[in-house]
């Protein structure tokens, strides 16, 4: 999907969601290997996902938007 | 393409209400920068303003205001109601509407054709009411002020009151409910168990009590953080929301699914969620109550602006809005009225209180030809004056603008605080994640024991399992951290400092000026016009053969036609001392020597010579008897003139530039502060040394040409000194610009034109010491605030993360964390409010040897009431 100023927010959110899901999955896998119960594994994965979203969303969205704006300027200059 | 963008570049200042911490600043900045077309954006928390540079061909101000409101803040627009005559429904709204909406700061226009009222909601700082009226008039309509609108200050005040009221209501719900929930939660512990009913700690009951609290007063945190998150920005609300949400979520799961492994029924944190909300709401309430007070000084100045003026048009008195007065209008001012614009008195006589501008506590008498200044108060008589400077050009408007600029700019020291505060929330969430992972995978297994309890509570966490424990510690880290304090530390103190400066007639042109002024160790004072009055006057009359009065009368007659400053001083002294006015029959100027004149006294004529030794010697006058006196006076830095009458030496007249009344006290005060005082002058070394000796100045830089002053300042800086240059701001401009802090002694009405980073409204060098003292006090507050804010977070976050747990088996409860967080932010605000009671020693009773003066702005406000 081409990143534009209009869809930059959605793409940023998707990227943050993907990254957070990976972090939660990694946690779940590590907790499963450690022999933790289902509640701890699922609850922990949920908390890791929530915190990762909170960290990644405001970090990735401006980055994606900035890239889109730059690309827009280059296109206009061309 | 780039050139087109340059053409459309525009700068605006948008008021923003509802920001509570540095994270809010970052949130607003990010939101605005996210709008295509916005090129630069700086938000100031204390001033509640966003300075935006944008391409007006791409975006507009209403779009920015909408974006700010979308993320949960308010843009307090002013409402101006105008009586527009000649409108017809169905047509004129399509003529007036687009024209008014096209103005950059206009947000909305509504028409009431039954009353002929057009209500315009606009950002005053972008589009003032006068511009709207002008636009409608240009369409051919007659426009009158209805006077019922609200200016931005009114609207801001209303919003602040509404916020206080909202948090009051929240407190009324949160505190009683929170305390009941806490009592019920601990009802099975001694001593509560002796009188509390057994059903009190029933979990569904606690759920029923806590849920309205989370959905009521707690709802604001979830809404604000969601609004921010969906645009990719974070603020303090997110910390609150995650903390409250996690505590409440665990409690609900443990109530209805006790076997889920989250700690069971004994680990329901309803009281944590409830007290978290109660403490945060308390913090919000206290902040709303105190935040506005740091900017009180500027509001007092703004309130001095009269809204109406009585203008003489076609011989009749017409009352119009003050912002509609144009230069050239003749304005009538009655006793007790405030002067609406700057101008010159045409007729009438009165005493005017100008203490706001000049610092003169005694009302100044005004008659035809005298200047009057907007915002000053007419005390006794009525007079008419011609408007010269109106609107943004008036001295009062310039002072307000300077103070506002100082309050909205960011000091260099703030850069670090901004960087930390801006990324603080993300860092705290990252830390909370790390803490969770540590306690989940390692800490719990290494350190957990059954006697685990929360600090200051009897609440044991014996049944808490690994997930519940790690989550609790992680939530507490989120709740205890306080980026608010870090973000608020510098701007709040700067705001208070700039306001305090304005009260004492010291205008800092930006926060960096406050910081620079606080760091100076050397003060360079220009002699003429700064330490001295800049106008020579007669200091000594040494009479020989004739009386002193007669000598002065002869000299004055000889100099009557002279335009030389020394001659003018003699004529002025003769007039002031009541010397007889003698008739001059002939007068001749002798360049480089003096003057000669023939003066008529009754029937006799006297030949008068007035000049230097060379003149006396050239004309064969024996002045040896006066030589000793002449040398003594010259040694004191005075210019000595010999007077001869009919060829015989008659006496001496000494003229010197006299010191201002407060110069000696100012130098004493500056030295008492540990500053090195240097005098800079173009005069010869002997004169300079004499003046310096009178003032107690040890270091003198004499015979410095006007162009060399900046070089002298540079040389001092190269020697490692941090220099404040004090001058009149016109001749000394290069030196003022070169200095670390350029202090311009202003003449009140020309404040904005002066060069220099600090402007003293009064013509009083003692204010240099006051400026340095206010700046030092401001920076002291900044340092205290920053030390507290960083120190609090540095100590509290590790505590919440459980660093002491392995040794004490106790962890911080989320509610205690909330209390500490609220108190931290509140402490910074309270510490800053100490500036209100501060009085610079230079302006205190006895300070610098001068009696205390009243604070001009405050006193005028009192008078206006």
| Alpha-carbon distance between the two ends of chain B | 55 Å
Mean pLDDT of chain A: 82
Oligomeric state of this protein: heterodimer
Ends apart, CA distance between termini of chain A = 21 Å
What does this structure look like?
The complex is a heterodimer of chains A (78) and B (865). Chain A is mostly helical and 78 residues long. Chain A has two helices and no strands. In chain A, helix 1 (8-33) runs antiparallel to helix 2. The model of chain A has no long low-confidence stretch (mean pLDDT 82). In chain B, strand 2 (38-44) and strand 3 form a beta hairpin. Chain B is an alpha+beta fold and 865 residues long. The two termini of chain B are 55 Å apart. Classes of the chains: A mainly alpha (78), B alpha+beta (865). The A-B interface holds A 5, 9, 12-13, 27, 30-31, 34, 36-40, 43-44, 47-48, 50-52, 54-55, 57-62, 65, 69, 72, 76-77 and B 1, 30, 34, 36, 229-234, 238, 242, 246, 260-262, 426, 429-430, 432-433, 436-437, 440-441, 465-467, 470-471, 474.
Q: What descriptors fit this protein?
A:
heterodimer, A: 78 residues, mainly alpha, 2 helices, B: seven-stranded mixed sheet
Question: Summarize this, please?
Answer:
The complex is a heterodimer of chains A (78) and B (865). Chain A has 78 residues and is an all-alpha fold.
What order do the helices and strands come in, and which of them pair?
The complex is a heterodimer of chains A (78) and B (865).
Chain A: H1 8-33, H2 38-77
Helix pairs in contact in A: 1-2
Chain B: H1 2-8, E1 9-15, H2 22-33, E2 38-44, E3 49-55, H3 61-70, E4 78-85, H4 92-101, E5 106-112, E6 117-122, H5 129-137, E7 142-145, H6 152-185, H7 203-215, H8 219-229, H9 236-256, H10 270-291, H11 296-303, E8 308-313, E9 316-321, E10 330-333, E11 342-348, E12 350-353, H12 355-358, E13 364-366, E14 371-372, E15 377-378, E16 383-389, H13 395-408, H14 412-447, E17 453-454, H15 466-480, H16 483-503, E18 506-508, H17 511-519, E19 522-526, H18 527-531, E20 532-543, H19 548-559, H20 565-576, E21 583-590, E22 594-601, E23 604-611, H21 613-618, H22 624-635, E24 639-645, E25 648-659, H23 663-672, E26 676-680, H24 685-695, E27 699-701, H25 709-718, E28 723-727, H26 733-738, E29 741-745, E30 758-760, H27 766-801, H28 805-808, E31 810-811, H29 814-833, H30 856-864
Parallel strand pairs in B: 17-31, 19-26, 19-28, 26-27, 28-29, 29-30
Antiparallel strand pairs in B: 1-3, 2-3, 4-6, 4-7, 5-6, 8-9, 8-10, 10-16, 11-14, 11-16, 12-13, 12-15, 18-30, 20-25, 21-22, 22-23, 23-24, 24-25
Helix pairs in contact in B: 2-14, 6-7, 6-10, 7-9, 7-10, 8-9, 9-10, 9-15, 10-29, 13-16, 13-17, 14-15, 14-16, 15-27, 15-29, 16-27, 16-29, 17-27, 19-20, 23-27, 27-29
